[in-house]
Write a structure and sequence with these properties.
Largest sheet: 8 strands, mixed
Number of helices: 13
Distance between the termini: 45 Å
Helix content: 25-40%
Strand content: 25-35%
Number of strands: 20
Radius of gyration: 22 Å
Length: 444
Amino acid sequence: MEQCKPKKFQIAILGGGITGSSIFHILSKYTNIDSIALIEKDGKLGEINSKENNNSQTLHFGDIEANYSVEKALSSKEASQMVVRYLERLGEDGAGIYKKSHKMLLAVGKKEIAEFEKRQNEFEKIFPNFKKITREEIAEIEPGIVNGRKKSEKIMAGYSKDGFTVDFGALAKNLATEAKKIKAGAKIFVDTKVIKIIEKEDGFKITTNKETFFAKAVVVAMCSHSLMFAKELGYGKEYSILPVGGNFYTSSRKVLNGKVYTMQSGKLPFAGVHGDPNVHNENETRFGPTANVMPFLERNNIATFGDFFKSTLCDKKSAIALLKVLSENTLLTFLLKNLIYEIPYFGPRAYAKMCQKIIPTLKYSDFKNSKTKAGIRPQLINNQTQKLQMGEIEIEGKNILFNITPSPGATACIKNAAKTVNKIIAFFDGKYSFNKEAFEKDFQ
């Protein structure tokens, strides 16, 4: 119910996932802006795409991600190191948020090994601690990869001890909680769903299911929903969204000691099959995710079909771009193959067979409680080129920003937050400042 007098803030951040919470933290600690609101529709922060079950819990450095270019790997390495700096400062408080884990990039067969070695030659200067290892060395570190595998099948891997498994939902909560401790004017509102953003002469009126807010500047950090709100205000018309959801399968026996990724196509923004230790249970290994196009902006929420329509199907140009992307041969083949994994009975067994690329002895019976649903990944489409737009973007309007962060957006949360904060500061024409020196001391 709308109150007569809105709650007033200098900045309102809409969305309390890892992106919004990072911006909230950086604004609170490194700027002199004295009133900041973080508004989240769920009952807790970090409970949608940032929630540990909804993603692979991977901090992406760019070494095991075989579809990354050199440029993308350099950017991911810089971003991931910022998160590492924060995690390592947590001390004992980090126990429920992250664990260190070794990691591998596995190449199977002559063709993949040739691709791996070519890539390794290009990337070894970026990742000097990422070493090429042989079958015998793989067997010592991850015996499950070698056990049961035909001796005639050649394998090779890249290996590093410096991997991180992260509960990004828990990290979002920690970042936001610390922000409140730092600044009295930093306020968090949960169970507060944004219904409408209205641009006013001197700011924005934000109508929610509970009360009304007014802010001089706004950051919409609502993942897939960010584009919907952007278009409602006349921004972001050059983009549409390919919403991709998937599933993870959990092994009921411990089959891996660390993260193992496989070689993947650089033409696709989706990871190949990989196995990941569960940050909260090292005796579980999660395999996935599969990838399926779903006409929703939020998993398990059919009501968001209307939101998908508003963001992508509401105009001819966006709808045509979506159809063009879906008809591209490489992507279409990939998505059709993933549809097989959704067929009852046969699908999970087919996926278990694919996971045998990593663990040859894995069987469908190893999967505990069948599958868990991953979150929606909002892959952006550029309506002009009618192609997928890789990585995250930030649409800028008059005193308002819209963040859309597909994977690896969680990895880049601190780096992107700093960029966002710099833009926010510029909105106020010198009234506020960003303490860049203090930020760099903490994160670089």
